[in-house]
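Pipeline run #58 for the internal structure catalog. This entry was flagged by the ingest filter as a single-chain record with no existing model, so it goes straight to prediction. Upstream metadata was stripped on purpose; only the residue string is passed forward. Reviewer on rotation: M.T. Logging verbosity set to normal.
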Amino acid sequence: MKYAHRLSIGGGAVAALLVIWQVSAVYGWIDATFLPPPTEIVKTTIDLVRHGYQQIPLWEHIAISVARALVAFVISVVAGVPLGLAMGLSPWTSAVLDPFVQFLRPLPKIALIPLTVVWFGIGETSKFFLIFISCFLSVVVGAAAAVGGVSRARMLAAQTLGASGRQIFRFVVLPNALPEIFTSVRLSIGIGWTSLIAAELVAATSGLGWMVMNAGTYLRTDVVMVGILFLGSIGYLLDFAIVLTQRVIVPWAGKEA
């Protein structure tokens, strides 16, 4: 199916949902207190753009959340990819670190909030740590699995041709592992972005996650919906940016014979 065709079908499905949603609100099938209609959400968005939320401009809430997530994400990739590669290449390194990684990775990060506050206080460091640890562990596991999936036959063939260990890593392991590494990076940025709300529970006074939680306590479901739409849209754009980066850096992904 062509991309334009898929786009038109997807756009039609979204438009149909919005119409049904609006009609349901107009005829009272859905209580607007619990699920405001699209027209109300548009009005609220315009009001937030003009006046902000809790004396803070909307763009500032967005910028703060994006900055928190991106800083933690970039550092997690810079630190996590080399560690994951080391675990994939060295059985000893994997044996030492894997128990800790596998224990912490499925642990709900919201459970770490009390310890994070004790360790780092209620400032930006604690918020950074919660997002970082969510991304970091996924990147490590993904990079290690990517190396483990590299064809041993290719590595042996390169070794037979006289390639050194460094050359095998540079010309065989890394090119074959990069597509899977990028996949894990895409997953990790999604996990990190969803961890943003948990991070902004830690004595925050700004950010999209905080805005959603704060509005929910006052039953401002229209503000909650606007925040959710922005969170989803920004998450989509971040994921799309990773896809574009992968196409530039790893153009051979999905084209191996």
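catalog note: The mean pLDDT is 86.
catalog note: Residues 201 and 210 are 7 Å apart (CA to CA).
status: ready for reviewer M.T.
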